[in-house]
Amino acid sequence: MSEKFQEMLEQINKEIIFQANEVEDTLFKSVKSFKIQNEKMAEIVKNSDRKINFREVEIEKKILDLLATQQPVAIDLRFIVGALKMNNDLERMADHAKSIAKIALLLSNEPMISEAESVIDLGKTTRLMVHDAVQSFIQRDSDLAKEVLERDKIVDEKFAKITEIVYTAVEANPKKFKQGYEIINAAKHLERIADLATNLCEDVVFMNDATILRYGFNKQD
Fold first, then answer.
1. Confidence category of residue 204, pLDDT binned at 50, 70, 90
2. Where are the beta strands (DSSP E) in the chain?
3. H helices then E strands: how many in the chain?
4. Measured between alpha carbons, how far is 191 from 189 in angstroms, rounded to an integer?
């Protein structure tokens, strides 16, 4: 492996980790802005999206440049392919966090129904999934990645419960229909972020073990 190739790999790795940490922070702020109905914090999340988008494009350029100019062996090629997919999924997470911040802005001037607290709980579960998914990448830990994958069921169950209790609340108080609709939307964005966290974990297992877990496949390349 050439010194130049190794430097390019390490740089991509560092930038993916930096991007992941930025996205994790954005998710934290989006959920907090929803919880405390803080317009300023929600605006910060919205404004951070451009930086994350720009960084995603820059990382992609570096990955494609590496593929075009170097000759990676199998294990490095798995990392490169996984990093390309992770880069895209991290940007999509940030988009969902931005959407949650927009909902926080919409609801910032009205009292929240008590059922909104369930979204905060879901946010904590989802944030921990994202954090541990990122850690599994940093540590190249397939066992942690597989453990995080199992948590997706918990998120799905919580989302279904939120939908149920919010519908019930809105039926009892139709004036809160718009708020209930936006609360379910916020929960849905968190559920999608959790799905994207599972994508990260599947990529970690692929990088480490050459095993494809997506769609229930378990094949060696």
1. very high
2. 211-212, 219-220
3. 7, 2
4. 5
Prediction pTM value: 0.93
How far CA 210 is from CA of 21, 182, 186, 193, in Å, comes to 25, 41, 35, 24
- The 10s digit of each residue's pLDDT in 52-102 is 999 999 999 999 999 888 877 777 888 999 999 999 999 999 999 999 999
The number of residues in the chain equals 221
Question: Which single residue is written with the structure tokens 């922070």?
Answer: 25
Q: How many CB atoms lie within 10 A of CB 106?
A: 15
Residues near 7 by beta carbon (within 8 Å), at least 6 away in sequence: none
Structure tokens at 198: 């599972």
Written as one string, the DSSP assignment of 62-86 is HHHHHHHH----HHHHHHHHHHHHH
Distance CA 138, CA 30 (A): 24
Say how far apart CA 157 and CA 138 lie, in whole Å: 28
